[in-house]
Amino acid sequence: MNNQLINFVVKKYLKFDKKNPFISISAILAFVGVAVGVMVLIITMAIMNGTEKEFKDKLFTMNYPLSVYAKFGNGINDNLLNHLEKKFPNLKFSPYISSQAIVQHDEKISGGLIFGVDPKREAKINSIYAKATKNLVLNKYDLITGIGTSDKLYLYDDSKVTMYFTSLNPNGFSMMPKMKRFNYKGSFSSGLNAYDNSYMYTSAAALRTILRKKDDYYDGIHIYSNDAFNDIKLLEKELQKYPSVGVIGWWQQNGNFFSAMALEKKALFVVLMLIILVASLNIISSLLMTVMSRRKEIALLLSMGATNKEIKKIFLKLGIVIGFSGIIIGTFLGFFGIFILDNFNIISLPADVYGTSKLPLDLDMIDFISIMIGSVIIILLSSYYPASKATKIDVIDVLRNE
User: Do 377 and 312 sit in the same domain of this protein?
Assistant: First the structure.
């Protein structure tokens, strides 16, 4: 195979054709289309991954990677907590009691979910809670609320608030909800509006007293794990000894949400890959027009001894040069776009909706490889048909008539 001839012809056909400018314009459009498609895919996948990672970080903090819960019976006690801490020293445990409650300050009220926790244990696994209580000395009936609740109720340091619980107390011939005065000590900001407006924290001892639970009673145990998918299997095996207790992972609690995000990501990948597919149609049309306009040259090359493989390789290489150049430029533009968006606050997001005011970006290597493989396959397929078409020219007929 004469590679010198192939390279010479490819370079000649890549030059702007003044006699048939539409062929060169079509090739330029194909190049631009592939570049834009690759760039948009890279930036979009980075945004999708970054958004998913940001939500996972927020949900990890407020929902926790793993949670042990009581299926039935009298909840969870210190014996089980101590057993799990000895059995799994690599995990961090924070037992809790939870209850729905209404908080009142002056004439304003707000509802939510209150957690009774051990402040030291909770601070080790919940960075948002740790930040809110960093310089505070918390007593039994002290209260930490979300920033949404404190703003709504106009709370300030050491404000006295009244908590109303869903449990009832007998009061003569009627039942009254349990209530207790708490001291407001501070607030946290998770970046997610749903948590900031509903979550509250106090001591486990306070809720035990109010709800009349045993001294070692817990509703569940929040667990921090660096490898939740494997640790849940070990915990499930260990908790088989305790039939009244189960364990659940963050992906099970928020499965529908992340399934929807994964589906959206796949759909966007397919839709945006169509940009490259449409651009490849320009490659096909450009190569076919080149074949038609160069019929005489192709016939001469074949009559002078060029093989069908060499003719096919000329047009295949021509399509590959156009397509791969677009992929390379598109990749450069994609990473440049990520750099610009990551370092300059061009796009600002509402933090209460997306969990962050900065556009999150995180390009996964698997997604990048998938983009490259998909683009290469489309370019190769779009270049092959015109290349094979060029070898089916009737040499004698072309030379006789042209």
Answer: yes
